[in-house]
Amino acid sequence: MEELPGIVITGASGRMGQMLIKTVLESDKARLVGAVEREGHDWIGQDVGVAMGGAAVGVSVTDKPLEAFVKAHAVIDFTAPAATIAFSKLAAQARAVHVIGTTGMTDEEIAQLEPASHHAVIVRAGNMSLGVNLLTQLTKKVAAALDEDFDIEIIESHHHHKVDAPSGTALMLGEAAAEGRGVALNDVRDSGRDGITGARKKGDIGFTAIRGGDIVGEHDVLFAAAGERIILRHMATDRAIFARGALKAALWGQDKMPGQYDMLDVLGL
Q1: Are residue 21 and residue 115 in the same domain, yes or no?
Q2: Which residue among 13, 40, 64, 216 is the one 20 to 30 A from 131 at the CA level?
Q3: How many C-beta neighbours within 10 Å does residue 123 have?
Q4: pLDDT at site 70
Q5: Mean predicted lDDT score pLDDT of the chain
Q6: Inside any domain, residue 1
Q7: Do 85 and 107 lie in a common domain?
Q8: Is 256 a catalytic residue?
């Protein structure tokens, strides 16, 4: 029987890291072969199952990512931009699929992933859920169908621990809306309003970020014109949907040529 694809999880101790580990351990299509944390972390050297408060699973947490990556078929990475860029180089050396769910990356940081994509598969998305990727496609189609008499506002809500705004998903939706209208998001983006801002500029795509409590993730795309509004909405109630999507991406990438892909490719959308 052929061995199941081996998966390494970076940022093992984080909320998403632990959810990803749990998802891989419960899967009958993949196996956990590595868990990575930063140097000096309390989990280093511990069995990751024990560190998470459960039974041993036979995988120790390490601060040596390349040693873990060379044993893997895929790396799933929901960490921080600088770490993700470093991991991309190591995953490329190991020829492992690199699934990136890290948000808050600038265009310059995203561009730094390009060299690694010549040697390995990179699947990067602001959101790994099926529902959000369908919402992205709907947003593009609605934006293309409506003219600039409809203002576009993207309203996103997340837990109070989230450090970046707008969310990666919100920006993904903004890109879809801009593409639908045939414009560049950087030319029409309007976010961080405060004080006397003046009237809204026609054609702008606005962003509003809400942070509070334990909200997993909610995104509304509002199309507002005189006398009517259209609202497209996605609500996530369990971050396991992102972990399942990330694992799906890791498995999908196994037989693909090196390059950069997104969840629309994974889902055939």
Answers
A1: yes
A2: 13
A3: 27
A4: 98
A5: 96
A6: no
A7: yes
A8: no
And the tokens for 266?
Answer: 């994974």
140 and 53 part of one domain? no
- β-bridge partners, 97: 74
- In angstroms, the CA 159 to CA 179 distance is 29
Query: Is 158 tagged catalytic?
Result: yes
Residue pLDDT, tens place only, 25-84 = 999 999 999 999 999 999 999 999 999 999 999 999 999 999 999 999 999 999 999 999
Please give the pLDDT value at position 131.
Answer: 93
Q: Which residues contact 109 (CB under 8 A, 6 or more apart)?
A: 81, 82, 84, 85
The verdict on 134 and 166 lying in the same domain is yes
pLDDT digits (tens, 9 = 90+) for 116-162: 999 999 999 988 998 999 999 999 999 999 999 999 999 999 999 99
Which residue range(s) make up the domain with 64? 6-124+239-267
Annotated binding residues for (S)-2,3,4,5-tetrahydrodipicolinate, written as ranges, equal 159, 168-169
- What are 151-175's pLDDT values in tens digits? 999 999 999 999 889 998 999 999 9
| Residues contributing to the annotated binding site | 11-16, 37-38, 101-103, 125-128, 159, 168-169
| Tokens 């992933």 sit on residue | 113
- Return the beta strands (E) in 58-110 as ranges: 61-62, 74-77, 97-100
My answer on whether 190 and 228 are in the same domain is: yes
CATH number (domain holding residue 90) = 3.40.50.720
Inform me whether the pLDDT recorded for 110 exceeds 50: yes
CATH code, 232: 3.30.360.10
Per the listing, tokens 């509003």 go with 208
Q: Of 73, 98, 140, 158, which residue is the catalytic one?
A: 158
